[in-house]
Amino acid sequence: MVEATQPRRLTPKGRATRERILEAAIALIARQGVAGTSIEDVRAAADVSGSQLYHYFDSKQALIRAVITRQAESFLDSGRPRISALDSFDALRAWADAAIDQQRQTGCRGCSLGSLAGELAVSDEETRGDLATGFLQWKDLILNGLRAMRDRGDLRTDADLEQLAFALLSALQGGVLLAQTVLDVEPLEAAMNVTLAHLETFLTGVR
Amino acid sequence: MVEATQPRRLTPKGRATRERILEAAIALIARQGVAGTSIEDVRAAADVSGSQLYHYFDSKQALIRAVITRQAESFLDSGRPRISALDSFDALRAWADAAIDQQRQTGCRGCSLGSLAGELAVSDEETRGDLATGFLQWKDLILNGLRAMRDRGDLRTDADLEQLAFALLSALQGGVLLAQTVLDVEPLEAAMNVTLAHLETFLTGVR
After folding, report:
1. What is the ipTM for the molecules in this complex?
2. What is the pLDDT of residues A89-108, one digit of tens each?
3. How many CB atoms neighbour CB A20 within 10 A?
4. Are the CB atoms for A68 and A130 separated by under 8 Å?
5. Which of B122, B160, B183 to mutate to test the interface with A (most CBs of A within 10 A)?
6. N or C terminus of chain A with fewer C-beta within 10 Å?
7. Cβ pairs A/B, distance under 8 A
8. What kind of fold does domain B2-68 have according to CATH?
């Protein structure tokens, strides 16, 4: 994933061009899926020449990997102050609500790491590895928040933090997948509410 | 979905041929994904002529819809006696364990309605509709089981059954998606354990 997260040093203009290509790819993939998006579609939408595009992304595969990395990072640096660290019940609830709102605002469509995973993981080993890295980073971010809660005395010491972290991420991914398929946010709300209710039973109440 | 679930009346030989084509398609899609599977691949794997294949499935789309219907049905008629009705905590636990075992046995690969949904729902409105129908049937099967438990007095009357049913299905789909991406069954186990633990808090204990 290194080449995707740390592109070689670019001029400000180069960074802007790379960014324009990446954003065009993200928007097209959200609408059409990966299989339905060609390099030529991305080139036309970003309004760049073929040689410009290949300067930054030398294959469709490289472009898709950059999209995956961006999707994982956009969660990690979402910029919402309450979500920068998932280290309180309120922060986890706000994270869940932000995901639910996002689905509601996009009419339960839109590009998530999860829908990319569904489309790509089956058939492409390298991409599966990138997706796995993204998911495990995400899980660790949740896990670190839960550990901070436990160390602070907010969570009982018998809580299985690894299990809770994977359950929260699975609830999010499964809920988004179902919401996008049935075009209704209800499954996502149900999954997050139930998983957070279980987490809540481990709160010590001394927050 | 009618044409896919109720194909026109076929002779026993016709049914066997249609079945052979469908099973070849399911196996290929599990290995290669939908985008990576051509009609020609299916024809060769099923060892039928092109005209035979088109007699039963007049397009790749028709074939994919039949695969989706079969995936949803295979859950509903899985033939495992304890899973034919999800109307007790033990049956729900057995259902979760069967899903976990299946992922473990396939090395966290394999074709699920969920991975089909991830690959297809974004880009194809008709297929999305079929998948939504499949998921909602599945949710209703869980919901009917939970209602039977409540009516029998096994579940407290304040349990939100619709929420529990969607949460169980989301946990399964998200857990399978993560398991298939990170190649480890742990996220699926975590998701099912947490959701069932929440359900358990609504048991009346008079089972």
Report:
1. 0.78
2. 998 898 889 888 888 887 66
3. 16
4. yes
5. B122
6. C
7. 192
8. Arc Repressor Mutant, subunit A (1.10.10)
CATH class (in words) of the domain with range A78-200: mainly alpha
| CA of B68 vs chain A CAs: smallest distance (Å) | 13
Q: Would the CB atoms of A119 and B33 count as touching at under 8 Å?
A: yes
Shortest Cα distance, chain A CAs vs residue B189, angstroms: 8
- Minimum distance, in Å, between the CA of residue A143 and any CA atom of chain B: 13
Residue whose token pair is 């046995």: B105
| Buried b / exposed e along B59-82 (16+ C-beta atoms within 10 A) | eeeebbbbbbbbbbeebeeeeeeb
Give the start-to-end residue ranges of the domains of chain B: 2-68, 80-200
Determine, for residues A167 and B190 on separate chains, whether the beta-carbon distance falls below 8 Å: yes
- Which of A118, A136, A170 has its CB closest to that of B117? A118
* Side chain identity, residue A116: L
pLDDT in tens, B127-153: 778 778 878 888 988 999 999 999 999
Based on its alpha-carbon atoms, the radius of gyration of chain A, rounded to whole angstroms, reads 19
Amino acid sitting at position A22: L
Rg, chain B, Cα only: 19
- Contact residues on chain A for B139, CB-CB shorter than 8 A: 187
| CA B123 – CA A175 distance, rounded (Å) | 19
At A44, the amino acid letter reads A
